[in-house]
Amino acid sequence: MNDPNLTDRLYGCGAVFAKDIDKQMSPIISFLLTGVLPLILLIALGNYMAKKLMEHAGGKNSMAFGMGKSNAKIYVQSSEGIRFSDVAGEDEAKENLSEIVDYLHNPKKYTDVGP
């Protein structure tokens, strides 16, 4: 239908138009808003989450999630030596040591009892 005078004739007959025709958005802006902007947001969110994951895993210079990272600790031996008061259950340790000393002094007493 190609009638340039249609709207004028409709107004002349008393027709009332209830809605204005909306102007369409530019296809370039529509493409940017529906295609490019969500993609940029997803990439930014992915980078942010990857950064937080790497910080949680030990930093950017760490190996994959701490693999190869030793948790070994170096303990320096005391120069004073170990005393009975340092040993948990020191009474039992004293009894066991006194039995060993007794065995070293009187081995016959223990061999008579049997293996």
Radius of gyration: 45 Å
Structural class: mainly alpha
How does the major sheet shape up? none
How many individual helices?
A: 4
Secondary structure: number of strands: 0
* Helicity range: 40-55%
Q: Which residues sit in consecutive blocks of at least 5 with pLDDT less than 50?
A: none
Q: What is the average per-residue confidence, as pLDDT, rounded to a whole number?
A: 82
Sketch the topology as an H/E string, one letter per element: HHHH
Question: How would the global form be characterised?
Answer: rod-shaped
Terminal residue distance: 118 Å
Strand content: under 5%
Secondary structure layout:
Elements: H1 6-12, H2 27-57, H3 90-105, H4 107-113
What would the keywords be for this entry?
single chain, 115 residues, mainly alpha, 4 helices, 0% strand
Write up what this structure looks like.
The chain is an all-alpha fold. The chain has a domain at about 5-65. Helices cover about 55% and strands about 0% of the residues. The protein contains four helices and no strands. The chain has helices spanning about 5-10, 25-55, 90-105, 105-115. α3 (about 90-105) crosses α4 (about 105-115). The longest helix is centred in the middle third of the chain and has 31 residues, at about 25-55. It is rod-shaped and about 135 Å long.
